[in-house]
Amino acid sequence: MNKIWLIIQREFLSRVQKKSFLIATILIPLIFPAIIGILVYVSKESKKGATKETIQYIDESKLFIPDTSKYVFRSIDGSLDDAKIAFSKSENFGLLYIPNYQLSKPEGITLYTKVNPSLDDVGNIEKLLASQIKEMKMQKLNIDQKLLDSLKTSVSINTVKLSEGGQEKSSNSGILFGIGMAGGILMYMFIFIYGAQIMQGIIEEKSSKVVEVIVSSVKPFQLMMGKIIGLASVGLLQFFIWIVLMTTLTFGVLGYFGIDPPQQQAMQQMGSEVAAQQAAGNSQIVATINEARNLPWGYFLGCFLFYFLGGYLIYGALFAAVGSAVDSPAEAQQFMFPITIPLLISYMSLFMFILQDPHGTVSIWLSIIPFTSPIAMMGRIGFEVPFWQLALSMILLIGGFLLTTWAAGRIYRVGILMHGTKVSFKVMAKWFMQRG
Amino acid sequence: MEALIVRGVTKQYANHTALDNVDLTVPEKSIYGLLGPNGAGKTTLIRIINQIINADSGSITLFGQPLTGDHVGVIGYLPEERGLYKKMKVGDQLIYFARLKGLSRSEAIKKIRVWVDKFEIKDWLNKKVEDLSKGMAQKVQFVSTVMHEPRLIILDEPFSGFDPVNAQLITQEILELKQKGSTIIFSTHRMETVEDLCDDIALINKSKKILEGTKKHVKDQYKSNTFLVEHRGAFSLNGGTYELLNQNIIEDGFLKSTIKMNGTGSPNDLIGKLIQVTKVSSFQEKIPSMSEIFISLVKGESHE
């Protein structure tokens, strides 16, 4: 036991003392918000600075198209062929041809452009035409806008969850969706990054040929477990630093905006109507924040840690077995593929099934099967997972990693001593069966 | 007392037998050469002694006790496939290895200091292994093998990959360690080091031990009672106990003869006979080299 502890220590210290660890640990929580901030900023700026595009149109149906923030529409007369020739020489963005059509069935509308128009452009113009045609229809049917407006009713559902004790809890599925997504993605990243590091570490020991020196002092299984546990503790440390940094950052930012005087002044200067809207929006945000505060964060965190450790141990053992069998990272590729399949399946299912329908059959089973459960359960965790499902999933996960660790250990003890052998799954199976 | 007794060790793999009922007896405070061609099973045997793999059957006794996990600290092992952590500092690395062998941190530092002074590598302690030259790394590797003062040192092909200067240094160290009371087993192909260093040898071929004993005993066993004589004046021996295999002129009337003695005579009898017929200037028994014995045995086996 004492020797495993020495190995854990070495694995932990040799990684934590690296500069790259320090940089990744401190920068990643800052990089993501920064990237999102930059993207938002750039898209806002580019909208501001964009010049309006001119679209000429020939309208045989006498439809009037108003200018929008993005396009200027110029009606022209003459034949389509003449217009096409003129358009190709002009600097206009597009040429829109609207034939004489039936109001009920507008067909044959064509947009000519010099470059491929984006889906956004086409969609915008379609929407614009649709609303113009709708107006014309309304006029024909003698419906006036006020009547139509009075028909419109805005409905917004408050979701309230009734627990067994009869307590009301307002639930915000948006937040839960976010938690599920973030938890699932984070889990996927952690398992992948740290699992791959186990493999790299073992390949390094094998290729630098230090491994036989070490296994003359410790059992191969001890060396493997020491490495897996050492790296897990690096992962946990990194995770805790991220949580602390992000929490501090979030509260810092919230605090900053909460007492930011220039914004309040700006609000007073704005028109009363806008200000009221803004205030309503703000109260929405405040409500969301309050709801977020009431969520069982401790439970989420506990589950995340459990599934991180379980998932990491299952996959870590498999990565260790692959690392022990090969001589170089390039050789490892072919064996990585079958390991990453269940990871990828659970990652994709996170978006396809689990977050869409957390209590669907597929979601439930994915969150119970040990190889997919770490990511799948993270996706479901916000949506009140029944106790029996959680318990079954956890028990199977523990059983799963005991099994993979045992199997990986059998391959590992033989693999690390093999140099220059051509390895296949068949060879690995033989190692697995081999006696001590 | 024997340092190591191996009895009936067998190791079977799926499609071949690596070791077949091998016995070895390694006397204490000796240098023991484990010889054999590639793939004979030497490394498997060494790994079994180091408890890296388990034998299917047989027993191993180390300094009078059955081999257990507690013996890890008693053995120092330099594998054929050897290396160090490239990104780890020399000092940290040596401490780590010493602690894996069961030393406390302070003990480890004390013992490392002795070796570091001896090899004059004190300045390297804070360097990473990847910054060392190959020769430097070899010294560090050797220190890591012997720093915990093991009673049994096992060196698998110790001279492969070592430059001549380091090989010389290590030869000296091996002799010194023996004098201090360690037992050294090494496996090698280099027959000249066997001639120079070994007290005892064992030859393993095709998973079986085919020869074991002190170097002198083995050579006696394989000598052919042939003598080399330099003399002035030709002579001839016809049949009987002595047989003249050849006779060549070397220079200025000196000749060299090879004489085979049949039956159980002593060299003195031959000398007595020779001085009657010629003027002897040198007389020497022809003793086979280890290399000759090795090749004749291994080849003989493969012809069977």
If you had to describe this structure to a student in words, what would you say it looks like?
The complex is a heterodimer of chains A (436) and B (304). Chain A has 436 residues and is α/β, with parallel strands linked by helices. Chain A folds into two domains: 50-146, Periplasmic binding protein-like II (D-Maltodextrin-Binding Protein, domain 2, 3-Layer(aba) Sandwich), CATH 3.40.190; 171-433, no CATH class. Helices cover 70% and strands 6% of the residues of chain A. In chain A, the strands form two sheets. A four-stranded mixed β-sheet of chain A has the order 2-1-3-4, with helices on one face. In chain A, a hairpin with a 5-residue loop joins strand 5 and strand 6 (168-170). In chain A, helix 6 packs parallel to helix 11 and helix 11 runs antiparallel to helix 14. Chain A is elongated and about 90 Å long. The model of chain A is unreliable at 259-270 (pLDDT under 50). Chain B is α/β, with parallel strands linked by helices. Chain B has two domains: 2-220, Rossmann fold (3-Layer(aba) Sandwich); 224-286. In chain B, the strands form three sheets. Chain B has a six-stranded mixed β-sheet, sandwiched between helices. In chain B, a hairpin with a 2-residue loop joins strand 12 and strand 13 (254-261). In chain B, helix 2 crosses helix 3 (105-119). The radius of gyration of chain B is 24 Å and the shape is elongated. The two termini of chain B are 37 Å apart. In chain B, 35% of the residues are buried. The model of chain B has no long low-confidence stretch (mean pLDDT 87). The A-B interface holds A 3, 6, 10, 14, 204-205, 208-210, 212-218, 220, 413, 417, 419, 430, 433-436 and B 13-14, 47, 50-54, 56, 72, 75, 77-79, 81-88, 96-97, 99-101, 144.
